[in-house]
Specification:
2 helices, rod-shaped, about 170 residues, mainly alpha, about 90% helix
Length: about 170
């Protein structure tokens, strides 16, 4: 088993150590600071993002609480508006009923007045017609009775005696 890869010689180990040392030196001089800086920047960015996420989470919780509060206030306002609308509607209905009752009473009163007026007018017309008929009948009777001069003189004398002059 004289394989050089499995059992390396002293020269190979020496040159490997020197190559490794140069590689470590170059990496420590120029590579590690860049890598460490990148790792630190990455760590800081992750930390900042975690803090920002935590802040956003807190803000979201606050917004959720505010939204719930606004929603509750909106529900309260909605209920109040509905209650006020219902009360206003009931009030309008009551006012309309009152106005309708007043108007109905006014119409009934006007109808009664019209009925009384028409009744009085009809009675007045009836009395006038009766008076006209009575005068016509009396006139016809008087003509019939006064056609004879002797009867007319007797009638006039009798009526003058019955009439009381002031």
């Amino acid at each position: 088993m004289n394989n050089p890869l499995v059992s390396p010689g002293l020269g190979v180990i020496f040159w490997m150590l020197i190559s490794f040392g140069i590689l470590v030196f170059i990496l420590m001089k120029w590579g590690w600071p860049v890598i460490l800086k990148a790792l630190n920047d990455r760590e800081k960015a992750i930390s900042d993002q975690l803090n920002a996420a935590e802040q956003v989470k807190k803000e979201m919780a606050a917004l959720k609480a505010d939204n719930e509060k606004l929603l509750n206030e909106a529900k309260i306002q909605r209920d109040e508006i509905l209650r006020n609308a219902r009360l206003a509607g009931e009030q309008l209905i009551e006012e309309a009923r009152a106005k309708a009752t007043i108007e109905a009473d006014r119409i009934v009163e006007n109808a009664r007045e019209n009925i009384n007026y028409e009744k009085l007018k009809a009675m007045h017309d009836l009395k006038n017609q009766i008076a006209t008929l009575s005068i016509d009948i009396a006139e016809k009777l008087m003509r019939a009775e006064l056609e004879d001069k002797a009867k007319a003189n007797i009638f006039i004398s009798r009526e003058l005696e019955n009439a009381h002059l002031n």
